[in-house]
Amino acid sequence: MSDNNSAIVLGATGLVGREVVDRLLHDPRYTEVTCLVRRPLPASLFHDPQGKLNPVVIDFDQLQEYQGYFSVNHVYCCLGTTLKQAGSKAAFRRVDFEYVHVAAQLTRAQRCDSFVWISSVGADASSSNFYLRVKGELENAIMRMPQLPHASAVRPSLLLGKREESRGLESLGQSLAPLFGPLLQGRLKKYRPVSASEVADKMITLQRFTGNGENLGVSV
Fold first, then answer.
1. What local confidence, expressed as pLDDT, does residue 5 receive?
2. Burial level of 146, CB count in 10 A (0-12/13-18/19+)?
3. Residue 135 annotated to the active site
4. Phi and psi dihedrals of 106, rounded to 5?
5. For residue 10, what are the domain limits?
6. Residue 182 C-alpha from the chain's centroid
7. Catalytic, out of 131, 162, 189, 202
8. Quick check: is 52 in a domain?
9. Distance CA 62, CA 54 (A)
10. Which end of the chain is more exposed for a tag (fewer CB within 10 A), N or C?
């Protein structure tokens, strides 16, 4: 397995994104980790003993102009927002669908080894729930994209971890998770709350490393 991989992370300051970047910086298989961000990263956010981190401030509305940064082995897309944060359905869709879809297109254009992004449990393009419908439409759009065979989506339920911003219902869910999580068994097990660190670990295992060339074009 190659120990000379490069990666790009979108959404590096989010709950899962921070976990992904931290792991990549300490993973001997990676020599460079580029983070596309909206604003400069605080120096204290990551421990980078080997100088792998390359933060790049960009305008996500012009993401297609940064295609050159996608000349890497692996793309980790951890972008995501909420309707409350976005302020409207159109703004939500711009982040959770359009930005991620453009990232997948740039991944394909640069012929990266693989692309992994965060979807959601229950994602369904025919759902009456707007959030789940957008997630499902995105899965369909990426999985059907020609010449992007090594793409995978992780589908977490409620994410556990400490966020910088407050999300009311999510905070309540996190406090109740130890009580109701163990009750979800069998077919309901996929709805158990999951830690951001577990999701990060899953994303890394889904990437296509040299010598591990299985086609990952399925949702997980």
1. 95
2. exposed
3. yes
4. -70, -35
5. 5-161+194-206
6. 26
7. 131
8. yes
9. 19
10. N
On whether residue 217 sits in a domain, the answer given is no
pLDDT digits (tens, 9 = 90+) for 36-83: 999 999 989 999 999 999 999 999 999 999 999 999 999 999 999 999
Residue 182 has pLDDT above 70, yes or no: no
Q: What is the pLDDT of residue 173?
A: 47
Catalytic residue among 52, 66, 76, 135: 135
88 domain residue, yes or no: yes
Measured CA to CA in angstroms, residue 94 lies from 5, 86, 97, 108, 218 at distances of 30, 9, 6, 20, 24
**Position 140 in a domain:** yes
Tell me, what's the pLDDT at 171?
52
Tell me which amino acid residue 89 is. Answer: K
Contact between 117 and 14 (Cβ < 8 Å)? no
Number of domains in the chain: 1
Residues 72/6, Cβ–Cβ less than 8 Å: yes
- pTM for the model: 0.85
Helices H, strands E: what count in the chain? 7, 8
Write the CATH number for 86.
Answer: 3.40.50.720
